[in-house]
Amino acid sequence: MKKVFIDGSAGTTGLRIRDRLAQRDDIKLIELPEEKRKDTPARRKALNSADISFLCLPDHRTAPGCAYGFPELSAEFEAKIISSKRIAVPGCHASGFIALVYPLIEAGLLGKDALLSCTSLTGYSGGGKKMIAEYEGYEKGAPLFAPRQYGTSQQHKHLKEMKAVCGIDEFPIFCPIVDDYYSGMEVTVPIFARQLKSGGIEDIKAVYAEKYNGPVVTCGDESQGGFLSASALSGTDGMKICVYGNEERILLTAIYDNLGKGASGAALECMNLVLGKEKNYGLSIKRR
Questions:
Q1: Considering only 25-34, 55-64, 149-158, 184-193, which range has the smallest mean pLDDT?
Q2: Model confidence over 30-58: pLDDT tens digits?
Q3: Strand (E) positions, the chain?
Q4: Catalytic residues
Q5: Residue 39 — φ and ψ, nearest 5°?
Q6: Which residues pair with 189 in a beta bridge?
Q7: Cα torsion for 31, 237, 133, 136, to the nearest 10°?
Q8: What percent of the chain has pLDDT over 70?
Q9: For residues 285 and 236, is the Cβ–Cβ distance under 8 A?
Q10: Under 8 Å between Cβ of 128 and 120
């Protein structure tokens, strides 16, 4: 039985990881009492006694020596995760963008010099405890009842990750939007067919179908009557890749939970690989 410590277990992501692990019989959680949660010696002792530690702290997603925690991107990504001692889980917004763009660059359908844009809708839980309190508080202000775009300076922390992992020459124009629902994420990258170096919409679908055949990331259609809900996979740990549009204008869309495949679900998937288990072991994956 592996001993696991979650440093930052009181945060939104840490709590979801803890809830998932608490249901497993192959894991023993090392937990600190509330008064020791920020005690450095106590944390150090817990970290040193654990077989696996989750650090819900500032990220190292593009740091040398850290495996990037998105195994579905390639066999090389998965092998590095399995063999690494340090794994950086992708950022929530970046997960969708990279899932959509990386395979097209890899297949040669899209050039590294492509100028791209990305819109990402997310539930307010992505903002952590402070934002959750704002949205769920009794004195909730009128602006919080409508979608709010942020990161308008085009300096969002996930941009570096998007560019580096996909290997593109330019940062995308990125429009993140938070709205009045708890969790769920919808990331859309629009492209003109003439931006493609070769092929069209059916070739894109074929590339995704070959790349994302489960069990965590799959392809399909999550629309209902022409509408696409950003909360379609809320509460789950999977991701659905969808392609819409026509032969001229194409919408590449990733649907998932910002707390699932966008955070804790991805972390647990990586742990499963390190432990030699199936990627989806102990995860909640929606079936259709």
A1: 55-64
A2: 988 888 888 899 999 999 999 999 988 76
A3: 2-7, 27-30, 52-55, 67-68, 87-88, 117-123, 148-149, 173-179, 185-192, 217-219, 239-245, 249-256
A4: 92
A5: -80, 115
A6: 252
A7: -130
A8: 98
A9: yes
A10: no
Residue type, 233: L
The contacts of residue 274 (CB under 8 Å, 6+ apart) are: 52, 81, 82, 87
Structure tokens at 82: 């399995």
User: Counting runs of H as helices and runs of E as strands, what totals does the chain give?
Assistant: 8, 12
Q: Please state, in angstroms and rounded to a whole number, the distance separating the CA atoms of residues 234 and 260.
A: 8
* pTM of the full structure: 0.94
The C-alpha angle 277, 239, 179, rounded to 5 degrees, equals: 135
Mean pLDDT of 233-260: 97
Contact call for residues 100 and 211 (beta carbons, < 8 A):
no
Predicted pLDDT at 36 = 86
- What confidence score (pLDDT) does residue 112 get? 98
* Distances 211 to 31, 53, 102, 186 between C-alpha atoms, Å: 38, 29, 10, 20
Pick from 104, 77, 31, 101: nearest CA to 266: 77
